[in-house]
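Entry 12.
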Amino acid sequence: MKKKLRTLILFFFAFNTIQAQTLVPFLKKDGKYIYVDSATMKPVIWEAQESVQNEFDGARMFHNGLAVVKKYGKWGLISSEGLLLNCCKYDWISDFDGNFSIVGLASKSGVILANQCGLINGTGKLSLWSKYSGIRPFFEGIAMVYKEFEDESNYAITDSNGITESTKIKIRKYGYIDKNGKEIIPLIYDQADDFLENVARVGIKSKYGDYGFINKDGNVVLPLKYDVLSKLSDGISISSHSNYKDSAFVELINLRTNTKKLLNYRWKEFGINNYNHPISFSDGLIPFKVREKGIGILDSTGNEILKPSIKYQEILNFFEGYAMVKSNENKIGFINKMGEEVIPMKYEEIDFFSDDFGHHKFSEGLACVKLNNKIGFIDYSGNEIIQLKYDKISQDFKNGFACVGIGDSYFYIDRIGNEYREK
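Predicted 3D structure (tokens):
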């Protein structure tokens, strides 16, 4: 009995040791990727079987037991045992979210093809192929989908030579599916966002206002009557009934308390940031711009944390208690939630790669910055934690790793600057 118990205990610790192992893509000199154990930097060699591979043209971190890899110019999924699922036959693929990866095909020029996308599960099984023109990742168990249709109306298009031709344009209709692929909210909306805090912002074009919120049952919880409506954060959205009329005041809407508050700003004077990202609350604060007065910050009750000032050309949303600010000389720094400048504006702008305000934000305590055309990472105090020596970045720190690039090559680094590449 004791021997059996000892065996079980040893098995338990061995199993957890295997589970705790972190596999990281490692870039070789020949441009191929292998996986290594992050603790030892030793290559992981999987047993040679027909469907098992050890080298790849591209590789990403494991998420929920599966990783995205590229082989022969196509993308697919691989298990932690090295088993390729559904082979590599897609032009683009999302990270595995624990249930699905979104996959699709693209043209030779790289343009994503409509109606050529679907979902693959943890066994590599494909579903919903060609049913929708596009599928978004799942949020709170629901994914936004859309279909493209050709508008029946004819539109006059004039080219650069002054020649006018009659043409038809494509329109999109949005709806939502659950994790079983069931369409739970029909494709009736002209605009739609992912679900957040159990609601989604949707829009139907009309002359009376476009936007409102629906819940997961498809019921309207805020009427579709607003011309401007930000995404929800901490139950709060910022809105206006009319974009251009002097009488339109900015309004705070709290869906949790079902209350509204008019701010002492008219929407005609109230702007969004220069990057044209939708304004929304983050960390309980929202940057705002008042024309001819400058940039400021509001809290969730509409109080001014930072009064509008021409000192800043731009303030992006807060992440982990800090927000990027840009000077009138196009230099980048960071302020805290009190509006205090804690990291001086001396850095350069970084090209945006994503829809979450690019990489001008803190992630896992580190922010990517650029100086003298080189990229590295600093902490909350502005200390340089990872040397500024990289040319580009494709992923901020996530689960302890970031993806950076030198020249045409991308590779992973950890929080202390270890590089997962062959030098």
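Annotation: Confidence is low (pLDDT under 50) at residues 1-19, 272-278, 352-357. The helical segments are 2-20.
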